[in-house]
Write a structure and sequence with these properties.
Helix content is 35%, strand content 20%. The strands form six sheets. Strands 1, 2, 3, 4, 5, 6, 14, 15, 16, 17, 18 and 19 form a twelve-stranded mixed beta sheet that branches. Strands 20-22-23-21 form a four-stranded mixed beta sheet.
């Protein structure tokens, strides 16, 4: 059996100008990054602004397990299936972070015969967007420390600096550091911190900004510290906005690549869904809606994280109205939720499936609360038995969900036809009545508790004393009407990664709360979730190499 990277490297790509031409984008509307990658020009985005929108389809999943779910693979395969059926479709995805590529999770190109390509370039440096975000983030950090060094005219309290440096790599040693060591000329000694680039507020800003004007307004609102009077100090106060925007100018433009079957794919932005808002850029999604009749996008991790933030943050801010949701599951993952070890998942076990399918059930119930019709896509494995498939099919149909078996890893677009037909049926026969799960004017604590109870199934929420003080202060500062961005483990509906299936009545623990004023949401840290991941004992980096002819091996 060929690996994902072998399949991708054997693929016959067509020039990106030809991919663009299939959906009416001329060569002059592209900014080429070699032969197979391009950015969409600002002029094109402006030119199509008044065109009607296509239909918006979100792909999400059950909680991730070591057995794998294949959400991006299904997204790509569904787009390819639409293409084979003569439908004008575009895929809208996030860019991969280097951290998971060299850590444990892997990249974000899909898998098997449902991938976006060029896979190696996408999963490594791509068009440099993440480097631009990292540089803009760290420029702001440098200007902040320099301001203090040069006299501290703004009266910044070094004990109340909240802006962190970032790096797009898993590096736990940088979570808590001391900067300024050395002589007086080396700056003020203080505690500092790093987050991974995909958790940076600038990543969120880039993904939520409508255009350069909106980008600059959002950058200016970033709170970097508080002064000795307790008043916020912003990036605008530090005169950092212009230079940061200059670094981000090209990164604001969506990237166009192709699938293995030459379906157009806009890949832009990459916030994690467990510690950020987990969706590709508003600009890419809105542009895709002008380019095609059907847009298939995805949100990170399970529906409790990615889909919730897609609905409550992205759709709220961008006034998007999704028409349908595809919820991805696998029989293997459901049996894992039912208590079966990874080594025994290939054996038929309907009892374990019955025990574990409650995780899928909870996600179906949650998605229905948002008023959007659901199609369950069962990502097929060769070990699945007919008894197991029939059980899941009936379970879903009994809950007013269309059901489809997807074989896109093995068969590409052909393996997604059944799913595509069920999605098309849903779009034609089931109306979406989308609405966020909480109102803007609800107090922050009530928003947190709404998500915890309605989406996660928590029985209560406990707040660390510091978190209570932070919430009260943010309400006083006028940030109470912002949505909340919950940072939580992806492995469980709860904040405890060991609680599989459908935990109920648990206590959700909130340890810290802070505002991302530029992004326009309040971040809520729960449990033990980290904004700078660490590497596992045997990182994926151990397997990656490059041959003398330049061919990369072991990426996946």
């Amino acid at each position: 059996m060929k690996t994902d990277i072998e399949i991708a490297q054997e693929a016959e790509l067509i020039p990106i100008v030809d991919v663009a031409g299939r959906i009416g984008i001329g060569a002059d509307d592209l900014e080429l990054y070699g032969k197979y990658k391009a950015k969409i020009s600002d002029e094109y985005i402006e030119a199509v602004r008044e065109q009607p929108d296509g239909r918006l389809i979100l792909v999400t999943a059950i909680n991730p397990t070591p057995a794998g779910e294949g959400k991006t693979t299904i997204t790509v395969g569904l787009g390819q299936a639409f293409g084979r059926m003569g439908k004008k479709a575009v895929i809208a995805l996030r860019e991969p972070s280097l951290g998971p590529c060299f850590g444990i999770k892997g990249g974000a190109a899909g898998g098997g015969y449902s991938q976006v390509v060029p896979m190696e370039e996408l999963n490594l440096h791509f068009t440099g967007d993440f480097h631009a975000i990292t540089s803009a983030n760290n420029l702001l950090a440098a200007l902040l420390d320099n301001h203090i060094q040069q006299g501290n005219e703004l009266g910044i309290d070094p004990r109340q600096i909240v802006w962190k440096r970032c790096l797009d790599m898993n590096d736990r040693a940088l979570r808590n550091v001391v900067v300024g060591l050395g002589s007086k000329a080396d700056g003020m000694v203080r505690e500092d911190h790093f987050v991974i680039t995909v958790a940076s507020e600038i990543m969120a800003i880039l993904c939520l900004a409508a255009d350069i004007k909106d980008l600059k307004e959002r950058l200016g609102k970033i709170i970097v510290a508080y002064n000795f009077k307790g008043e916020p100090v912003t990036a605008n106060d530090l005169q950092a906005v212009g230079a940061m925007a200059a670094l981000l100018k090209d990164a604001m433009k969506p990237n166009l690549i192709q699938t293995l079957e030459h379906t157009p794919a806009l890949v832009h932005g990459g916030p994690f869904a467990n510690i950020a808002h987990g969706c590709n850029s508003v600009r890419a999604t809105k542009t895709a809606l002008k380019m095609a009749d059907y847009v298939i996008t995805e949100a990170g991790f399970g529906a409790d994280l990615g889909a919730e933030k897609f609905f409550d943050i992205k759709c709220r801010m961008a006034h998007l109205k999704p028409d349908a949701v595809v919820l991805v599951a696998t029989i293997r993952a459901l049996k894992y939720n039912g208590g079966i070890s990874k080594e025994n998942l290939s054996e038929e076990n309907v009892k374990a499936l019955q025990d574990g399918i409650v995780n899928l059930e909870k996600h179906i119930e949650t998605l229905h609360k948002y008023g959007v019709p659901v199609v369950v896509a069962l990502n097929a494995f060769v070990s699945d038995t007919q008894a197991e498939i029939s059980f899941v099919k009936k379970f879903c149909e009994d809950r007013n969900c269309e059901f489809a078996l997807a074989r896109v890893w093995e068969q590409g677009g052909n393996g997604g036809r059944e799913l595509a037909e069920k999605v098309l049926y849903t779009l034609e026969h089931k109306e979406s009545h989308f609405q966020p799960i909480y109102a803007d004017d609800m107090p922050l604590m009530e928003k947190i508790e709404t998500v915890a109870s309605q989406v996660y199934g928590a029985g209560s929420v406990s707040y660390a004393p510091a978190a209570r003080r932070q919430l009260a202060r943010l309400e006083e500062m006028g940030f109470g009407k912002l949505p909340v961005c919950m940072a939580k483990t992806q492995y469980s509906l709860s904040d405890d990664p060991s609680l599989l299936g459908r935990p109920v009545g648990f206590e959700m623990r909130v340890r810290e709360v802070y505002v991302s004023a530029g992004a326009g949401f309040v971040v809520v840290l729960t449990g033990d979730v980290m904004t700078m991941p660490g590497l596992p004992k045997k990182p994926a980096a151990y397997q990656i190499d490059v041959e003398e002819n330049g061919k990369i091996t072991g990426l996946f």
